[in-house]
């Protein structure tokens, strides 16, 4: 009985992996099949980027501020107070900024895409597009995945700047440091090898958020409860993908850039 | 006299007309559940065929197989002489441009206005570029369903009957040769149901469409049907004109017609 359950579980998991492979190949095919939906792509960029900006901004600002407040006592104990801008900027640009932005976007965007497409599936809007001879993959899926792949890295960059600004304000609670000196120190601590892997992983994060949201919504069952399931499952799966991608990219970039 | 003439015309249509849809031994199951068992069906050009049956009998599954939304497990589904399950993506897309499908809930794109809903198939399917032509077609389609001023409304602002009309306008805007109606009057009050049924009849007369109407509404069947088939347990148990079936001795057929005036 238990063996049967394990086998069924594995089969379901393999089915799902196969389905996602097919969905991915349809996505790639539809990017190059002509008739790109520019207006929908721009609308999605606005929905995904502009409408998430305030949330990402506030979260990043607080993260930068809190990190300085938490780091300061330890750095002071080591007499390395002047290293605070360096520490914050390296940790924020390399890791915290992209991951926090991606997690926020997974919660906000993946769930909203999952729910929107799930609801379109339930109300037969996707079928209606399909039977009319239009291409729902191109209109709904390609535009959303490309929009998240573009907007999440941009949000991440903006989140980095806002996070560092938060750190500057926190540092001025206790110490006096000029804005220019602080940002000079932040930038001086950074290298090309800090920016590039962060940017690359942000693109992958964006792709994962869009892909998982679209896959879960597009393949949801035809019942009202499946909309909630699609949204919830999109957030959980996208978040897991973000940590997994982070682990892989950090490993690769460590081998390529940081190991001596 | 007129009724008899109409009856003779319908009989001639069934005998001599060109076959637009031909279904032979169609089978479809979902898991262990057999939904369709050896369905055979012929729809003639410019004919309104009504498929009657209780809910869950596989009526909608039949029309979803016709349009390629579902792949049959066995049998043959031919539309304009082409075997639908064997068509590739491009051929299926081409075929679908000739078929209009009115979904049970109308399936309007709820993030778009009514005008954008109608514009969608014109720009994506017919690839029209001329905005004047597009606007003219939209105006005609909206007037055709009796809602000329609904263009700027959102689907959420529309009543059930209005949604069905707009759904119909969205399919008619591309001039389909075949219309498939999935429960067009379900969830509507009797007056609106009758209006929608009459609209279906008008559409057939005006656009000369070949139609399959899936319903369990006898009023709708009476108004729209040239020919009726009745489904039970995944097979067709009776067929004929409304008048012929009304006289049937079959208990199930009788039960459908018992409440009809």
TrEMBL record, chain A:
<dbReference type="GO" id="GO:0043190">
    <property type="term" value="C:ATP-binding cassette (ABC) transporter complex"/>
</dbReference>
<keyword id="KW-0812">Transmembrane</keyword>
<feature type="transmembrane region" description="Helical">
    <location>
        <begin position="48"/>
        <end position="69"/>
    </location>
</feature>
<keyword id="KW-1133">Transmembrane helix</keyword>
<feature type="transmembrane region" description="Helical">
    <location>
        <begin position="195"/>
        <end position="218"/>
    </location>
</feature>
<dbReference type="Pfam" id="PF02405">
    <property type="entry name" value="MlaE"/>
</dbReference>
<keyword id="KW-0472">Membrane</keyword>
<dbReference type="GO" id="GO:0005548">
    <property type="term" value="F:phospholipid transporter activity"/>
</dbReference>
<feature type="transmembrane region" description="Helical">
    <location>
        <begin position="238"/>
        <end position="258"/>
    </location>
</feature>
<dbReference type="InterPro" id="IPR030802">
    <property type="entry name" value="Permease_MalE"/>
</dbReference>
<protein>
    <recommendedName>
        <fullName>ABC transporter permease protein</fullName>
    </recommendedName>
</protein>
From TrEMBL, chain B:
<keyword id="KW-0067">ATP-binding</keyword>
<dbReference type="Pfam" id="PF00005">
    <property type="entry name" value="ABC_tran"/>
</dbReference>
<keyword id="KW-0813">Transport</keyword>
<dbReference type="InterPro" id="IPR003439">
    <property type="entry name" value="ABC_transporter-like_ATP-bd"/>
</dbReference>
<dbReference type="GO" id="GO:0005524">
    <property type="term" value="F:ATP binding"/>
</dbReference>
<feature type="domain" description="ABC transporter">
    <location>
        <begin position="21"/>
        <end position="258"/>
    </location>
</feature>
<dbReference type="InterPro" id="IPR017871">
    <property type="entry name" value="ABC_transporter-like_CS"/>
</dbReference>
<dbReference type="InterPro" id="IPR027417">
    <property type="entry name" value="P-loop_NTPase"/>
</dbReference>
<protein>
    <submittedName>
        <fullName>Methionine import ATP-binding protein MetN</fullName>
    </submittedName>
</protein>
<keyword id="KW-0547">Nucleotide-binding</keyword>
<dbReference type="GO" id="GO:0016887">
    <property type="term" value="F:ATP hydrolysis activity"/>
</dbReference>
<dbReference type="InterPro" id="IPR003593">
    <property type="entry name" value="AAA+_ATPase"/>
</dbReference>
């Amino acid at each position: 009985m238990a063996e049967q359950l394990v086998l069924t579980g594995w089969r379901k998991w393999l089915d799902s992996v196969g389905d996602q492979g097919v969905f991915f190949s349809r996505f790639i095919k539809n990017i190059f099949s002509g008739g790109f939906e520019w207006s929908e792509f721009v609308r999605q960029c606005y929905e995904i980027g502009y409408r998430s900006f305030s949330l990402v901004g506030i979260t990043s600002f607080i993260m930068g501020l809190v990190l300085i407040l938490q780091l300061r006592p330890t750095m002071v104990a080591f007499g390395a107070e002047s290293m605070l801008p360096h520490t914050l900027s390296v940790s924020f640009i390399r890791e915290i900024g992209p991951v926090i932005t991606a997690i926020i976007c997974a919660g906000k965007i993946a769930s909203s895409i999952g729910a929107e497409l799930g609801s379109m599936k339930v109300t037969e809007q996707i079928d209606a597009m399909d039977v009319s001879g239009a291409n729902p993959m191109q209109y709904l899926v390609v535009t959303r995945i490309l929009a998240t792949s573009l907007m999440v890295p941009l949000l991440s960059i903006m989140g980095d700047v806002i996070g560092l600004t938060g750190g500057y304000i926190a540092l001025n609670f206790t110490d006096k440091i000029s804005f220019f000196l602080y940002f000079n120190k932040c930038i001086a601590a950074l290298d090309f090898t800090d920016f590039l892997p962060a940017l690359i992983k942000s693109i992958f994060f964006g792709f994962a958020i869009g892909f998982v949201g679209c896959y879960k919504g597009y393949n949801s069952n035809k019942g009202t409860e499946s909309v909630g399931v699609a949204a919830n499952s999109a957030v959980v799966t996208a978040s897991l993908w973000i940590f997994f991608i982070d682990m892989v990219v950090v490993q690769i970039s460590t081998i390529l850039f940081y190991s001596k | 006299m007129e009724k008899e003439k109409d009856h003779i015309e319908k009989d001639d249509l069934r005998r001599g007309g060109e076959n637009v849809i031909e279904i032979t031994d169609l089978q479809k199951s979902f898991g262990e559940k057999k939904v369709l068992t050896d369905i055979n069906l012929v729809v003639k050009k410019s004919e309104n065929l009504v498929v009657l049956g209780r809910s869950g009998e596989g009526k909608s599954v039949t029309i979803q197989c016709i349009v390629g939304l579902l792949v049959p497990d066995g049998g043959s589904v031919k539309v304009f002489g082409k075997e639908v399950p064997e068509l590739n993506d491009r051929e299926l897309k081409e075929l679908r441009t000739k078929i209009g499908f009115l979904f049970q809930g109308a399936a309007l794109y709820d993030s778009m206005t009514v005008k954008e809903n109608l514009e969608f198939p014109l720009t994506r399917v017919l690839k029209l570029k001329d905005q004047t032509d597009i606007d003219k077609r939209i105006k005609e389609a909206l007037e055709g369903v009796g809602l000329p001023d609904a263009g700027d409304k959102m689907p959420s602002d529309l009543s059930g009957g209005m949604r069905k009309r707009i759904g119909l306008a969205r399919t008619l805007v591309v001039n389909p040769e075949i219309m498939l109606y999935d429960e067009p009057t379900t969830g509507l009050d009797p007056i609106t149901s009758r209006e929608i049924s009459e609209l279906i009849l008008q559409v057939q007369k005006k656009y000369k469409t070949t139609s399959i109407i899936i319903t369990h509404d006898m009023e709708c069947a009476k108004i729209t049907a040239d020919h009726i088939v009745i489904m039970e347990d995944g097979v067709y148990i009776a067929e004929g004109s409304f008048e012929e079936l009304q006289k049937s001795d079959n208990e199930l057929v009788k039960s459908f017609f018992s409440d009809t005036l």
